[in-house]
Amino acid sequence: MRDNEFTKEKKVTLKNLLNHSVGITGHGFLGYSPDLPLPAFVQVLNGTSPANSDPSLVDKVPEESFRYSGDGYNIIQQMMIDVEDKHSQSL
Known about the structure:
Blueprint: H1 14-18, H2 41-46, H3 71-90
């Protein structure tokens, strides 16, 4: 996740992602038809084809307010994937 005007002063934290106070977009997903290609998880987060969702972006200052966003949990999932990949490469 890249810094932007909303994260200049207050950075995104794991706590913000978990308690929906991160100020991130993303309110749900349409799903995918079984006959269409599935996007990689990073494509879903970035909103790139073949994903059918907008990118996950911080558009409010973290901790400014509560706003439910499943994207926060998706970002956490990708963080765990990244950490596991780095760990398995060092073994």
